[in-house]
Amino acid sequence: MSVLEARAAVARHGLLTAVREVSLAVAKGEVLAVVGANGAGKTTLFRALAGVHPLSSGAVWLDGEDVTGLPAHMRLRRGIAMSPEGRRLFPDMTVRENLMIAGENGRKGAWTLDRVLVAFPQLVPLTGSLATHLSGGQRQAVAIARALMSNPKLLLLDEVSLGLSPAAIEGLYANLAALRAERDLAIILVEQDLDRAVSFSDRLICMLEGRIALEGRSSDLSRAAITEAYFGLTSPGEH
Ligand code: ATP
User: Fold this and answer.
1) Are 205 and 215 in contact (CB under 8 A)?
2) What confidence score (pLDDT) does residue 121 get?
3) Which of 13, 55, 192, 205 to mutate to test the pocket of ligand 1 (most atoms within 8 A of CB)?
4) How much is the pTM?
5) How far is CA 151 from CA 115, 148, 159, 203, in A?
């Protein structure tokens, strides 16, 4: 069974429809990558799945339950955690405090501070540091670790690599690869680096102007098909 399902989800910003009848599903242990050009609707879709942005129509189901009417904090308690683009940590709190607060607001489960620090060993020497003093890569690691502290069933990762050095990106993806190997979580991630999106995911969706232009098993999709869907050079039926 799918952990998360979106059914014909529509989300708007005023008169602009940013997400147009998007349906998707992700199962436990599966990684779904979402790619698409700037403005394709990826962030709005994520925010709608997390309950931060309202759906105009359609539905979001978590573990066989309709959560469409639930606000973000209730979805978090049911198991949807988002690590947003921009990372939004509490800057004047320490890494430990940022993590502990997240633990209090989520579900109870196997993810504790100790386990999160095993998954993100680079944070061990930083637990007493204020979030404001961290590098971009360290902040991103805390943001993902914080999402894990809520013991999610589904982890939404928006633009993990954004603005980070190649070394920081490698480090974070090593952390994520270890997480993925546990096959316990469903993960949906937005990743601008197409090669990385393909290699790190089981399935891939390419969005174009709010719609899904292409979807399939990542290993089955050619680079050419993804690039064409990305730039809107083909109709969805052609692949
Ligand atoms: P990016 O990679 O640039 O973040 P994206 O694929 O995540 O792009 P969204 O940020 O979801 O796309 O934007 C989808 C559409 O909604 C775009 O046309 C964008 O201009 C518009 N949009 C996004 N946020 C707002 C907002 N707060 N108010 C009005 N329009 C918005």
Assistant:
1) yes
2) 92
3) 13
4) 0.92
5) 11, 5, 21, 23
